[in-house]
Amino acid sequence: MRAHGLMICAMLALSGCDMDQGMAVSKGQDMVASVLKDSDSAKFSGAFLKEDKSIGDTHYGRLCGAVNSKNSFGGYSGERRFSANISYSKQGSISVSDVQLEEGINAHDSGDGRTFFQKYYWSGVCDLGELAATSASQANTGKWSIQIASLSSTSKAFAVERELQSAGVNAYRSEKDGVIRVFAGPFDDRNVAEARRESLEKKQKLKGIVVLQDK
User: Fold this and answer.
1) d(CA 99, CA 84)
2) For residues 118 and 155, what is the distance between their CA atoms, to the nearest angstrom?
3) Which end of the chain offers a freer environment for a tag, N or C, measured as fewer CB atoms within 10 Å?
4) How far apart (Å, rounded) are the C-alpha atoms in residues 116 and 138?
5) Cα-flanking dihedrals φ and ψ of residue 93, to 5°?
6) Is residue 14 pLDDT above 60, yes or no?
7) For residues 67 and 80, is the Cβ–Cβ distance under 8 A?
8) Residue 56 has what DSSP assignment?
């Protein structure tokens, strides 16, 4: 039995958007969720983008991570890793294709001790990104933050920051190359950051992605 593959090719163009990698991961997760049985129930963790190349202002790579969603009985089926092709441009276009989900308990061995998903869609691609993330974590202070927005407007960035603060969340901004990013945090533990991210999305309708805090 081969990996449970879901072949999609979805494209999205966001007008007036100055897209960065964090935004691409967030939008890419939404597009991956669209292939699940209950897309609204999708809960992602550890998602990252392993970039392969860039041509002009378009970046190409593999979107990797884990997702848990409800099954046909209305219960969560447990986390499964996923892997998908992704490309995005600074102007706001994004494409996700070839979404592959990890097999369940009946996964077959590929002949070398790995499942088909592990062999063809994770090893040598996504696990390299995991190693890079681990190295960055070891070199970092270990603080985690939630990137809520990436904006070119200072006034809009202030508005998002105030909204977070009114929700009782510590917030801060970081500006680089004319882009202002707004964060919630930092948090000492990633699980705490993930829980707060879910709470902000549910209560304040603010979507974000958990990232390692810059030094």
Assistant:
1) 4
2) 45
3) C
4) 30
5) -85, 145
6) no
7) yes
8) T
Rounded to two decimals, the pTM is: 0.56
206, 163 in Cβ contact below 8 A? yes
Q: The tokens 């039995």 sit on which residue?
A: 1
| Closest C-alpha among 176, 179, 189, 178 to residue 145 | 189
User: Is there a contact between 211 and 22 (Cβ–Cβ < 8 Å)?
Assistant: yes
CA distance 160 to 71: 35
CA nearest to 22, candidates 145, 155, 153: 145
Q: Which amino acid is at 118?
A: Q
Spatial distance between the Cα atoms of 4 and 104, rounded to a whole number of angstroms: 9
pLDDT of residue 86: 94
Contact indicator for 200, 185 with CB cutoff of 8 Å: no
Phi and psi of 189, rounded to 5°?
-125, 135
Q: Which residue has the tokens 């190693």?
A: 131
DSSP 1: -
Residue 73 CB-density burial (10 A; 0-12 exposed, 13-18 middle, 19+ buried): exposed
State both tokens at 214: 């810059």
Average pLDDT on 138-161 reads 76
pLDDT tens by residue, 76-116: 878 888 999 999 988 888 999 999 988 876 666 667 777 88
Ordered structural domains, the chain, with CATH: 4-138 (no CATH), 141-212 (3.30.70.1070)
Phi, psi for 109 (deg, rounded to 5): -75, 135
Beta-carbon neighbour count of residue 95 at 10 Å?
A: 18
Given a cut of 50, whether residue 69 has pLDDT beyond it is yes
